[in-house]
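User: Sequence recovery, please. Input:
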């Protein structure tokens, strides 16, 4: 997995984060269509934030995310955006 440095006008950076979080009460709910939808939503948020998902492992009761991020985004803000979006848009809304 070769990674490229991010070049800006005045800086060069390579910032990778490894996040791991669990489902509430460790219930085994991240399977089937929920797992597929979560994968899609995490990749969408990463694309919006100019991040690159290097590795994503969704287990039935927890998630491991290895992500490359620009240095302007704090890790807490990154997770706030990812974990804030996924429960609201987990189900497909029918209009």
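Assistant: Recovered sequence (95 residues):
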């Amino acid at each position: 997995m070769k990674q490229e440095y991010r070049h800006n006008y005045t800086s060069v950076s390579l910032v990778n984060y490894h996040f791991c979080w669990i489902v509430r009460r460790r219930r085994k709910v991240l399977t089937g269509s929920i797992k597929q939808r979560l994968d899609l939503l995490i990749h969408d948020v990463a694309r919006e934030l100019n991040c690159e998902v290097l590795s994503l492992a969704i287990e039935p009761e927890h998630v491991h995310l290895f992500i490359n991020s620009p240095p302007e985004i704090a890790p807490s803000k990154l997770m706030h955006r990812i974990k804030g979006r996924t429960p609201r848009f987990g189900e497909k809304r029918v209009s």
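Residues 57 and 64 are 5 Å apart (CA to CA).
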